[in-house]
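Budget justification, computational time. The allocation requested in the original proposal was used primarily to generate structure tokens for proteins on the priority list. As evidence of use, we reproduce two of the resulting records. The first is shown immediately below.
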Amino acid sequence: MKRWMPYFLLVLTLLGGSVAQGAVPDPVDPRESVNYTFDQRMAHTKQLHAKLREASPAERSMYFDKSLEAIKKLSPEERRDLSEKFKSQWKKLTDEQKKQVKQEARNYITSLPDAERKELKRRREMLLEFMSPEERKHWP
């Protein structure tokens, strides 16, 4: 019985790890998310932020790595087209809706530890690499 205990504990640990990793969903393909309505996008964002708050820093990092990879997989033309669609959708939002989006982002970011906030800022700067010089002007 004692010989099997370490193996049993190892199996439990591995199962627990796989369940914990399942807590954070895979990022949505940008080609799909561009078609979300405002309400769908807000509901998805709130749900995602709730799951990311519960996740470990490593899981959050893994999620953002996957989302960056999803963007890298797109061709430059697809990125440009999706960017234009997102911009046109943003322009169509009411001021109240824009405030909701910004507030949700602020709430999520302020809920993170300082080190992770700095990491998010670094990752955001990485995303700027995919933008044209004209697009970068609009990002603070």
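The second record produced under the same allocation is shown here.
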Amino acid sequence: MQYQGLNLIKVEGSKFEVGYGYSKFVKLKVNNKSYIPILSALINTWGIKNREDRIEKNILGKIEEKKNYLDFSIKCADIEIQNFIAGYPSIRLGESIWGPTNGFELGQVKKYTGMNISTKWEFQVKGLANFTYDIWLTKNKKGELTKNDIEVMIWLDYNFEPPWKDIGETNDFKIKYVKKDSNWNNGGHVFAFFSKKSSKKSFDLIQVINQCKKIIKNIESYYIRSIDLGIEFSKKTQVEVKLKELNFDFKTR
């Protein structure tokens, strides 16, 4: 007899390893109904320039359920990277824009009256890194990225900032923007929301997305493809994040 079930999330590696599971520290409500969300976990060292450098002695990432927190960790040596970021180990709710898909579709922005997200964590770093949400919005429901698509980043904790254009500020965030050229995923828009720091952050993702209307007027029609949370890191960096709680509380029309 065979038994099938969903395990606690765990992934480890130096390349593009992927794992699926759940975490008792990540909870989801939709219209006040509780769910156990299926998450993917990715190591994703896309910024390492040479394939032969993606070995354990140079770089190693882990995402693993512990007794009191979901643990994110990365160690990266002084190796050659393509730009400034070496990779992004993360957990994901929703479908990847690059695949494979898992059947969990978040839908269009206009579907929601609110997407409240609450996060509690501890961040320790030697080197340069951030702990950030990475949210992808596409104009089309399926397909590869286009020059019209959008990346929304919400930087919870960080010790560097990219030199992008300042476009505004709220009580919780300062906001930067950059339009990427065609060498970056066919071009696209990037909005970065830099948290005014604390060890717990709550925000409404719909209100965050609405701030992007300064550049993207018809953003309500975009599809929210995925919500990732993880660590962007550079070389010569060691990071650990202890995720104590992550609560998604969505309201639909």
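A brief technical remark on that second record: The radius of gyration is 18 Å.
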